[in-house]
Design brief:
The protein is mostly beta strands and about 220 residues long. It has two helices and 14 strands. Strand 13 (about 195-200) and strand 14 (about 205-210) form a beta hairpin. The longest helix has 9 residues, at about 1-10.
Length: about 220
């Protein structure tokens, strides 16, 4: 369960403020018979891919009305093999992602449209856990917390920002509030990340990239 939820955590854009930014769906009117051929990629261009609808997972979600009310927009995942069906609500906010045949992610938002929770279900619709997000008064994500299906804390991360709202430090803690490791980031004047480095809980350098890479 721990590895499963940690993997899902990596799918969240935590370094850009934790908030899901997948609002630019392509609004494909795919009709009742063409879901198995039209896929929307990350650049909102249409590509053709074969999808066997009979292979799409069936699940029983607590929010099953999502899948009855909204039509899916298909997307090919970065691995080139996994097909994702994204569901958007009337406000063009991503409310669910179905990763065929692996898992389902459902998104719950705060009143200010920041991402509040990301709930995880397996292909059978069984609840697997949740990631909760915390924000400061600038609506910047300052923490994300991973809970198991039994609502036990597994791991959490906190984020520190510079004056340009760039994440400059990311701290990861275990379930007992002990620091596990941390990452630091550097940016240029255009807010492009130019360096990153990873350290253990004792501040020992592990690895880095760009300007923060240290040859040993």
């Amino acid at each position: 369960m721990r590895k499963y939820l940690i993997f899902l955590l990596l799918l969240v854009l935590f370094t850009s403020g934790c908030q899901d930014n997948a609002d630019n769906n392509s609004n494909i009117d795919s009709g009742d018979s063409s879901y198995n051929s039209v896929v929307s990629d990350k650049n909102n261009d249409n590509i053709i891919i074969d999808i066997d609808e009979s292979s799409l997972i069936k699940f029983n979600s607590p929010n099953s009305s999502i899948y009855n009310k909204f039509k899916p927009v298909f997307q090919e995942a970065d691995d080139g093999k996994t097909i994702i069906a994204n569901y958007y609500n009337d406000n063009n906010k991503l409310v669910a992602s179905v990763y065929y045949n692996t898992n389902v992610q459902e998104y719950i938002y705060n009143d200010d449209m920041t991402l509040n929770k990301l709930a995880v279900f397996n292909s059978k619709g069984e609840y697997g856990g949740v990631i909760e997000f915390k924000y400061n008064n600038k609506l910047l994500c300052v923490g994300q917390y991973i809970y198991s299906k039994e609502n036990a804390l597994i791991e959490y991360q906190t984020f520190e920002y510079d004056q340009n709202n760039n994440v400059i430090k990311e701290n990861t803690y275990d379930e007992n509030n002990n620091l596990s490791y941390y990452n630091i980031y550097e940016y240029d004047e255009n807010k492009n990340k130019i360096g990153s480095a990873n350290y253990d809980a004792n501040g020992n350098y592990i690895t880095g990239e760009g300007t923060l890479y240290i040859k040993k």
